[in-house]
Every structure is written in structure tokens, then in C-alpha cells.
């Protein structure tokens, strides 16, 4: 075991001689091999940020931890994180596997995100949901610099377009889950193109997008046989024919969301229900019973008004 503390030690962190012999202080332990790997990893990020204020040595120790951190999620710091703190915390990190910045959506732009993406080519999971100030250049940067990307959330990022999605599909061959909720610039052609290159896709959301039709859904079903979760909420142009294709080609499907898909009915959903697929729309009989209970519940009030 090597002592990685030496380059970072300052006078205030050295142990002191006592009458009963030398006593080790916390910072005398090897930093990377012990403190980073077995101590700091159990502390919430907000506590680590507070720890930086104790001394220069603790500030250096926390920087070493942040430089070796595989996961970054600002949710651990509280309701929001300042732009300067974000840039400082990730300045030296080149080993990130998971990056979530949806808590930074109020201020994060390409200027803050692109350097982080550019120096972390091992990224596998990225959450950009709600980051409306980013541009398609963020997606292109992920495509060019992070070939091992497997999980990507782009919900409510209306800057995502078909061309950027195609670039991602061409270079990130191992995609397993993709959330395109409310990405309204994305159309059938781009979804079909991506599906053809991601046969291992297990989870997909194209919810809240009136541009998505049966064409895209059928292409996904035929190309992505490993699909387990599909969210079509609010896709008003999706019809029963597409759902039947999903039922035929996706034997591993576990959940399907079709709420507000007014052209999808029980005639296609029934096949999936019999396979115990979780569906967010109740069967007609159950819906009728709920409505009847509501009517019965209001009956005394109605009679009272009369």
C-alpha cells in the first residue's frame, strides 16, 4: 500500500509527539488507498463540501476524492448547486461512469457541460433531463467522446433533434435505455434509425410527442426484441396496429404506458395483459366500476341538492 498523502500534506496535518508516544491523526493515513476508498465514499457529498472548509489539507483530500469519483449527482448536495462549485468539483475528474445534472438545469449550458464530457470517455449513464439551456452540441459531444454510453435521459430537452440522435446511434452502439420524453423535434425516421442500431435496447420513452406514429413504434418493436419497458404516453397518433406489433415482436416486454393514446384500445392491450405486462391504463370493466363508484359516492350529494 502506497502513501498517497505525501504530495498533499501540510504542516497542520502532521501528527504531534505526545508523552505516551506518537499518535496518528486521520490525515496521516494513506489518502487514495484508505481515506478515499474506504472512508470518504460513505459520506454524503454535501458533508464532503463542508469538510473542505476545515483546513487546506482537508480541501486537498476532498479534491483527491472528487477526482477519483465514479458517480456525480448534485442531488446529494441539496436542492441546488452553484455553477462555480460544479465546475470546481469536476475540474480534475476523468473517471466518471455516471453523471446527473438535472438539478443544474436552471443554469447549465454547453460551456459547463462539454469540458466534463470531453474528459470523461468512460461515461455509461448520463441524465440531462430538463436541461433546456443545452444545445444539440451536448449530444454530439456525448456521441463523439463517450462510445460506452448505455443509459441516457433527455426528457424535456426540446433541443434534441433527429440529426443529433442519428449521430448518437452511429457511435454509441451499446445503448440500453433512452428517455426522449417531450423531445418534440424527434420524428419517426430518427427513432427508426436509432432502433436499427440498438438491438439491445431495453427501455425507451418517446412520450408526449405527437410526431410519433405507428411507423416508429413498429420499427422499434421489430428491431429491439430485448425491449422490456416502452412509454408511449400522449403519443396521439399511435394506434392498435402498432401495439399488436409490439406484442408480437417483444416477448420480454414488462411494462407499457399508453395513457392518453386515444387510438389504443383493449383489443390490442388485452394480448399483453394476458402475458402479465404492466399497463398504465385500467381494463374497461375496472374503469367502469370506478366511474360507478364515483357516481354512487356523489348520489347523496345530488339528492340533497335536488
From TrEMBL:
GO cellular component terms attached to this protein's record: cytoplasm; SCF ubiquitin ligase complex
Function: Substrate recognition component of a SCF (SKP1-CUL1-F-box protein) E3 ubiquitin-protein ligase complex which mediates the ubiquitination and subsequent proteasomal degradation of target proteins. Acts as a positive regulator of the BMP signaling pathway. Required for dorsal/ventral pattern formation.
A single BP term in Gene Ontology: SCF-dependent proteasomal ubiquitin-dependent protein catabolic process
Chief localisation class: cytoplasm
Name this polypeptide is given: F-box/LRR-repeat protein 15
One matching Pfam family: F-box
Family the UniProt entry places it in: Belongs to the FBXL15 family.
Residue ranges constituting the F-box domain according to the UniProt record: 26-62
Biological or metabolic pathway of the protein: Protein modification; protein ubiquitination
Domain F-box/LRR-repeat protein 15-like leucin rich repeat stretches: 112-273
Keywords recorded for this protein, A-Z: Cytoplasm, Leucine-rich repeat, Repeat, Ubl conjugation pathway
InterPro entries assigned: F-box-like_dom_sf, F-box_dom, FBXL15_LRR, Leu-rich_rpt_Cys-con_subtyp, LRR_dom_sf
Organism: Electrophorus electricus
Keyword Cytoplasm in record: yes
Subunit structure: Part of the SCF (SKP1-CUL1-F-box) E3 ubiquitin-protein ligase complex SCF(FBXL15).
Localization terms from the record: Cytoplasm
Amino acid at each position: 500500500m502506497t502513501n498517497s498523502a505525501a504530495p498533499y500534506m501540510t504542516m497542520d496535518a502532521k501528527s504531534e509527539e505526545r508523552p505516551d508516544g506518537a499518535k496518528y491523526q486521520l490525515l496521516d493515513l494513506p489518502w487514495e488507498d484508505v481515506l478515499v476508498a474506504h472512508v470518504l465514499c460513505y459520506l454524503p457529498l454535501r458533508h464532503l463540501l463542508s469538510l473542505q472548509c476545515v483546513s487546506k489539507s482537508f480541501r486537498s483530500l476532498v479534491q483527491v476524492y472528487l477526482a477519483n469519483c465514479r458517480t456525480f449527482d448534485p442531488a446529494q448536495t441539496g436542492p441546488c448547486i452553484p455553477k462555480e462549485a460544479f465546475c470546481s468539483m469536476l475540474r480534475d475528474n476523468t473517471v466518471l461512469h455516471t453523471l446527473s445534472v438535472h438539478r443544474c438545469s436552471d443554469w447549465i449550458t454547453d460551456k459547463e457541460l462539454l469540458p466534463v464530457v470531453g474528459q470523461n470517455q468512460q461515461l455509461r449513464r448520463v441524465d440531462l433531463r430538463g436541461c433546456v439551456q443545452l444545445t444539440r452540441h451536448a449530444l454530439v459531444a456525448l456521441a463523439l467522446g463517450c462510445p460506452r454510453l448505455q443509459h441516457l435521459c433527455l426528457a424535456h430537452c426540446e433541443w434534441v433533434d433527429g440529426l443529433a440522435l442519428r449521430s448518437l446511434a452511429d457511435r454509441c452502439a451499446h445503448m440500453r435505455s433512452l428517455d426522449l420524453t417531450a423531445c418534440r423535434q424527434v420524428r419517426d425516421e430518427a427513432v427508426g434509425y436509432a432502433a436499427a442500431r440498438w438491438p439491445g435496447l431495453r427501455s425507451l420513452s418517446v412520450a408526449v410527442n405527437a410526431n410519433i406514429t405507428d411507423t416508429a413504434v413498429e420499427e422499434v418493436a421489430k428491431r429491439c426484441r430485448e425491449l422490456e419497458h416502452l412509454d408511449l404516453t400522449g403519443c396521439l397518433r399511435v394506434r392498435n396496429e402498432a401495439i399488436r406489433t409490439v406484442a408480437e415482436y417483444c416477448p420480454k416486454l414488462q411494462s407499457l404506458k399508453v395513457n392518453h393514446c386515444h387510438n389504443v384500445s383493449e383489443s390490442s392491450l388485452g394480448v399483453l395483459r394476458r402475458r402479465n405486462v404492466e399497463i398504465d391504463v385500467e381494463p374497461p370493466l375496472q374503469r367502469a366500476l370506478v366511474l360507478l363508484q364515483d357516481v354512487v359516492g356523489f348520489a347523496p350529494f345530488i339528492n340533497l341538492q335536488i
